[in-house]
Amino acid sequence: VSRPTKVGALTNALENCSVWIRGRAQTIRAVGKNISFVVLREREFTVQCVVTVQPDTVSRQMVKYVSGLSRESIIDVEGLVSVPSVEIKGTTQQVEVQVRKLYCVTKAVVLPINIEDAARSDAEIEKALQAGEKLVRVNQDTRLNNRSLDLRTPANLGIFRIQSQVGTIFRQFLLSEDFFEIHTPKINPGSSEGGAAVFRLDYKGQPACLAQSPQLHKQMAICGDFGRVFEIGGVFRDEDSHTHRHLCEFTGLDVEMEIYWHYSEVMDIVDRLFVTIFDTLNETCQKELEAVGRQYPFEPLKYLPETLRLTFKEGVQMLKDVGVEVDPMGDLNTEAERKLGQLVLEKYGTEFYILHRYPLAVRPFYTMPCHDNPAYSNSFDVFIRGEEIISGSQRVHVPELLEERAQACGIDLKTISAYLDAFRYAAPPHGGFGAGLERVVMLFCGLNNIRKTSLFPRDPLRLAP
Ligand code: 4AD
Description:
Blueprint: E1 18-31, E2 35-42, E3 45-52, H1 60-67, E4 74-82, E5 96-106, H2 115-118, H3 122-130, H4 140-145, H5 147-150, H6 154-176, E6 180-181, E7 187-188, E8 200-203, E9 206-210, H7 215-223, E10 228-236, E11 249-258, H8 264-284, H9 286-295, E12 308-311, H10 312-321, H11 334-348, E13 352-356, E14 379-384, E15 387-394, H12 399-408, H13 417-424, E16 430-436, H14 437-444
Parallel strand pairs: 3-5, 6-10, 12-13
Antiparallel strand pairs: 1-2, 1-4, 2-3, 4-5, 7-9, 8-9, 10-11, 11-16, 13-14, 14-15, 15-16
Helix pairs in contact: 6-8, 6-9, 10-11
Residues 193, 213, 215, 237, 239, 246-247, 250, 254, 388-393, 432-436, 438-439, 450 line the site of 4-amino-1,4-dioxobutan-2-aminium adenosine-5'-monophosphate (4AD).
């Protein structure tokens, strides 16, 4: 079955060849009555198509029809590839197509946003406005209300290809390390992380909630003797935080594994997995990263071949040394995390690092206390550019201690009875972690809002589209 030639494949090598291409009419411009130009866009590639009156192929009527096409309509063009003597401005391809036939496959109605304007960087917008150009700044809500149009910009194509690649590398790396993929239930009798951030629902007359994390079930898979597992799946949080980094639904990258002597075995996996993700993105997503950077300029992530590990205590001390007082047995707030990120960058030259041995009091009930000092825990958080992307720990595998910890953290034991039972039949020592896919992509690309890396974001104010 024949398929159209890709717009991105139109080069000098095809000069004088007849091609069939399909794309969207990005712009349509008539020059007098005998000639029209259509810039056709397919994904991130654009080419200029020239419609000129010609005795046996193109009539005046045809030129008029083309001039009346609406932007973003899907167009089929048949024509000859030509190489103009001057540089073509404003298209990615340096050839033109001399149109012989043109069909409108699907017609677009008038657009609520102009894709070209939506694709400009802040600096380009400023420049255009100063030059007196008429353009409408497309704000985030308008973008998200019209997300399927907004997704047509090169930066957005880049973001979601990068996101896809993160998932692929995550899966491939873990498969090669003897993990296998599981799918845990998303409707559960209770919460897993404690706290109120859970969506409640009625499950055939029983109180239930949407999975706040695959936490309990991934651990139960380890009790089931699966050894090493991972999951890529939806996670639901009834957030009330209206911030740049909280969603009510996000994609969790979760890992759980048996350990033999120390929770650093889990941190070793985090280290090698994420360095592999960053290396591979830098190698294979150069074009996508450039497309994102053209609209949202950012510096490439600075990271070390072996990920820096600091203890929570060391982090607190670094903050103290510069006059930032934090509770040494509390959690770090967003501001302190940011500040520590800066200090770590200055001292160690990395924007990616692990902070471990957190105070037990700020960690979920399933976290293993440190055996030399139970005020601390065998746990860690991981940061990119001063913001958390991962939390993980060794888990309590001793049923008596697990029950005690759950009770101390105010968990209703009835809602986790099957989980507790799973440990009574002997569970191996184990640990794991969870990362948020949208946060990983946001922070790797230095973006300022998680809504940019969620395809159709769900936040406290948004349930559609
Ligand atoms: O820190 P969290 O809540 O940890 C857990 O869910 C544990 N069960 C993980 C484990 O295996 N111990 O969430 C893990 C990660 C965070 O580091 C963050 O990247 C992301 O999930 N995350 C969110 N992303 C977007 N919106 C939110 N509201 C998020 N809450 C957490």
